[in-house]
Design a protein that fits this description.
The chain is built from 4 helices and 11 strands, in the order E-E-H-E-H-E-E-E-E-E-E-H-E-E-H. The protein is 15% helix and 27% strand. The protein has 2 domains: 97 residues, Pseudouridine synthase; 153 residues, 2-Layer Sandwich (Pseudouridine synthase), CATH 3.30.2350. By secondary structure, it is of the alpha+beta class. A hairpin with a 6-residue loop joins strand 10 and strand 11.
């Protein structure tokens, strides 16, 4: 099949919250894929950006120009993209040194005890399902810090968590929270699809989330900070919770 990764797509509306000659910071909507891949050849965030910033096309890896980190398709929030080779190298190095600040909001089933902690468990690909990640001794080191912001009892026991990535493995927050028994609400892949009582719902069952009406994983990249590749200035950004997730919270008490 043809490689469409570098085909600009001006019809794709991308919310750019900051841009200069080196970096672009985007507030991604849920449902948008970051870059072309298996099953998602078109309609990606990268293709939308290429229409506005064509010089991105030669930056970084082929097929994913400018991309230094990703958000899952169902996750909303902040993402930084490199616009120059210098920025790409700088951001990759900052991610490797773990100086990029990334904080997320997640709604989970149950209320974690203790109310603040760190999940330190290696993550690797599942041998049975290669598209699924799992805690595994064969995996790469992974650490997620969390803090409970609010606990709710009705219509089900849930908690809003602030999570900080110390590493950046695929599906890391979703896998780690599921591993400690508090999967992300709306996350069918990692055990977060439950009914109003908190009981598990089979993936094909109808009426799931009739009470919470959360139609995607409740996960939002709320804060992003990094050092500017040219000036060294610390840049920090905050994204408000999108309307669909705000409506879910408004139904909790």
């Amino acid at each position: 099949p043809p490689d469409n990764s570098d085909v600009p797509a001006p019809e794709i509306d991308v919310d750019v919250v900051y841009a200069d000659d080196e970096v672009i910071v985007v507030d991604k909507v849920a449902g948008m894929v970051v870059h072309p891949g298996s099953g998602n050849p078109l309609g990606t965030l990268v293709q939308g950006l290429l229409a506005r910033y064509p010089e991105m096309g030669g930056v970084g890896q082929p097929g994913r120009p400018g991309v230094v980190h990703r958000l899952d398709k169902g996750t909303s929030g902040l993402l930084v993209v490199a616009r120059s080779a210098r920025a790409y190298d700088s951001l990759v190095a900052q991610l490797a040194c773990r100086t990029v600040g990334r904080a997320y909001l997640a709604l989970v089933w149950g209320c974690p005890e203790p109310a603040q902690g760190q999940v330190d468990a290696p993550i690797g690909r599942s041998r049975r399902e290669p598209t699924r990640m799992t805690v595994s001794s064969r995996g790469r080191e992974a650490r997620t810090g969390y803090r409970v912001r609010s606990c709710y009892q009705l219509p089900a026991a849930t908690a809003l968590l602030a999570c900080r990535l110390e590493t950046g493995r695929t599906h890391q927050i979703r896998v780690h929270l599921s591993a400690i028994g508090h999967p992300v609400v709306g996350d069918a892949r990692y055990g977060g699809k439950r009914d109003a009582s908190g009981a598990y719902v089979a993936s094909g069952a109808s009426g799931a989330f009739a009470s919470l009406e959360c139609r995607r994983p409740f996960l939002h990249a709320e804060e992003l900070s990094f050092d500017h590749p040219r000036t060294g200035e610390r840049l920090s950004f905050v994204s408000e919770l999108p309307a669909d997730l705000r409506q879910v919270l408004d139904r909790l008490s």
